[in-house]
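Dear colleagues,

As part of the handover before I leave the project, I'm documenting each prediction I ran so the next person doesn't have to rerun anything. This entry is a single chain, and its sequence is reproduced below.
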Amino acid sequence: MFDRPSSNERAVLVHIDLPAEKDQEDISELKELASTAGAESCAVITGSRRAPDARFFVGKGKLDEIRQVVEAEEAGLVLFNHTLSPSQERNIEKELCVRVVDRTGLILDIFAQRAQTHVGKLQVELAQLRHLSTRLIRGWTHLERQKGGIGMRGPGETQLETDRRLLGNRIRLIKQRLAKVEKQREQGRSSRKRSETFSVSLVGYTNAGKSTLFNALTGSDVYAANQLFATLDPTLRRFELKNGEVVVLADTVGFIRHLPHSLVAAFRSTLQEACDADLLLHVIDSSSDERLEMMDQVNEVLVEIGADEIPQIEVYNKIDLLEDVPAKIDRDSEDKVRRVWLSALSGEGLTLIEETLESYFGKRTEEIAVQLDVSQAKLHAQFFEHAKVLSEEINDSGGWDMVVEFNQRNRWLLDEICIKK
């Protein structure tokens, strides 16, 4: 669709420090992203500016430096560790005569490579099209001309208008398909809720070891690798605890600094598994020096998708890479589990996860006073079947005043109360 410069896989990486920005990108993470995408990093160019240049993001002198390195290294790709505007990306390409990709485009490319299922591919395509819609003007020199079309363009419609219309049609079609998938997944979640099955989701920064932990706990063979975004599509498995309780464990897509909003929106149906979980296991790479920053980034995404109110237990993974750090459980002053230290790869401390889940789901009960009218006789019977009724009295209207003990497994009955009232 675009008349863009051809590119090979040799890439020059560009990272500019911007003191005005509080949350700076990490150059080592850009290297890892480039490697994951399949690019060979042949040079790294760094610099600093008070603010990005409106035209080229970098200054004229830095742009000349990049050009010299590109020519010396015979690179065909320049990767910016920043989000570029469409005009900045276009202007830099014209000056360097090589392909230019910003951080968002690089992440989208990795997601496109990783998507395996039909749903995953649709989600990635939706994110790509949204990103592409702001860049349609690139490379077209004839867009201002109105041209006739056979079965494609409307009367007097320019090529750019045609592209935008076709793009919009495709986006609407993908949204309809994803809405259908989301409806099916919602039915599955409702079914699990009514079957009184607990749900636990693994969340965390990309490459923290979520899939390795998932496989170790469930005996599955989900693809796990020491690379960014190894998992895109959610995987669910039943996990039986030693006390007989059964939970559904969900492995989800990893998060990253400044995860593009287009990706968060496109993967909302996937991330919904985290939103509907009874408990989140926040998997953390304990060997990383930037683990605190990574945790903050994960929590920011959880806020964005509406999962920040769900109870969370931190799982410090990869203790096999640390010295003299044993598998253990950290508890707070109320004896509640706050974090678990383990190694999913070596298996050290895995039993502590089971112990944690057993204690968590075994003790979470709440006594709630409810009032039902005579039209809610079916719900009255469900309380006796699925919950523990502590007391019951007939009220003046012929209904029931009850005190019922609920746990995480049967809290769906409270939703029924809200619906019935």
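The radius of gyration is 26 Å. The chain has 13 helices and 14 strands.

All the best with the project,
I.
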